[in-house]
UniProtKB/TrEMBL annotation:
This is HTH araC/xylS-type domain-containing protein. It comes from Pseudoalteromonas luteoviolacea. InterPro entries: ExsA-like_N, Homeodomain-like_sf, HTH_AraC, HTH_AraC-typ_CS, Tscrpt_reg_AraC-type_HTH. Keywords: DNA-binding, Transcription, Transcription regulation. SUPFAM superfamilies: Homeodomain-like. The lineage of its organism: Bacteria, Pseudomonadati, Pseudomonadota, Gammaproteobacteria, Alteromonadales. Gene3D superfamilies: Homeodomain-like. The keyword Zinc-finger does not apply. Residues 188-286 form the HTH araC/xylS-type domain. One of its GO terms (molecular function) is DNA-binding transcription factor activity. The keyword Amino-acid biosynthesis does not apply. It comes from the Bacteria.
Length: 288
């Protein structure tokens, strides 16, 4: 996990558990979130992020609001030419918190299988852009910064308001589909994760994390499926795509390396030469 300087977190407690908070730090910063029996709603005030889950990746920017169900996530907060400050508010929804919040009954659209037929729930969904949501989180941030005023009753009201707000603004049915499976853990197939992130800079241990496996279990099952080691397969496929792009496009070698999942140009060049006995630049000159 990468480190971040000047990190700050202000949290709100509800019956001895943290249920919401404001976090600030500087990018770049990468961390893994293992959400077990809990979900999360995050609103970004500053910064940009690549949030990665088993089957897909999300590009988040200031103003975005994300709903995440129980699953494993990798969050890469990225450097930005406009500044590296990151600021977001998170609301943590554990099963015990939801049970305390709705002692009588859940909202009539959660857990009632009313999601649109045939619509598969994702592990996360970016909520529709809404002035109401933006205004809500701006006010919630002010409440969090005056945490001594946040009583349990006020927390009850603010979280119930948020849940009703995201339900009422859902037009696609994707939010409702996710809410119906909020605490059901995902069981992603190994092949699905590999295919979704074949050309991203994910390392083998990160893919294992997304599959809810240890690195050793992931490597063993990977070899059973693909007949070779995960690291050898991933590097080979990424180099193969890079070679095609060098020969068939005018894209720069640097942009091709990034597109194919290589974060370091020097490592990409070494691996490419080892595989094809020629550097990327030499191949470009030869084919040009």
């Amino acid at each position: 996990m990468s480190s971040s300087q000047d990190a700050m977190f202000t949290g709100i407690q509800y019956n001895d558990q943290t249920v919401m908070g404001l976090r600030r730090f500087n990018a770049p910063f990468t961390y893994q979130d293992e959400l077990v029996d809990e979900a999360r709603i995050v609103h970004v005030f500053k910064g940009q992020s690549a949030l990665i889950c088993a089957g897909e990746a999300f590009s988040l920017k200031a103003g975005d609001t994300l709903l995440m169900k129980s699953d494993n996530f990798i969050n890469r907060w990225l450097e930005d030419a406009r500044g590296n400050s990151v600021e977001f508010v998170g609301v943590r929804l554990t099963q015990s918190f939801i049970q305390q919040l709705y002692q009588a009954s859940l909202p009539n659209m959660i857990g009632t299988n009313q999601a649109k037929e045939g619509l598969e729930a994702s592990s996360a969904v970016v909520l529709p852009d809404s002035k109401l949501l933006s205004s809500y989180f701006t006010l919630l941030k002010a409440y969090i910064l005056q945490s001594n005023l946040m009583t349990n009753k006020l927390v009850d009201l603010k979280v119930q308001e948020l849940i009703e707000l995201i339900i009422s603004t859902d037009r696609s049915g994707r939010v409702l589909a996710l809410l119906n499976q909020l605490f059901i853990p995902s069981q992603p197939a190994l092949q699905k994760v590999v295919n979704a992130h074949l050309y991203t800079p994910l390392k083998v241990d990160e893919m294992a994390f997304l599959c809810h496996m240890s690195a050793s279990t992931f490597n063993r099952r990977f070899k059973q499926v693909y007949g070779t080691s995960a690291n050898k397969y991933l590097i080979g496929k990424r180099l193969e795509k890079a070679r095609q792009l060098i020969k068939l496009t005018d894209k720069s070698v640097t942009s091709i390396a990034i597109e194919c999942g290589f974060e370091e140009l020097s490592y990409f060049s070494r691996a490419f030469k080892q595989q094809y006995q020629v550097t990327p630049s030499q191949l470009r000159k030869h084919t040009g």
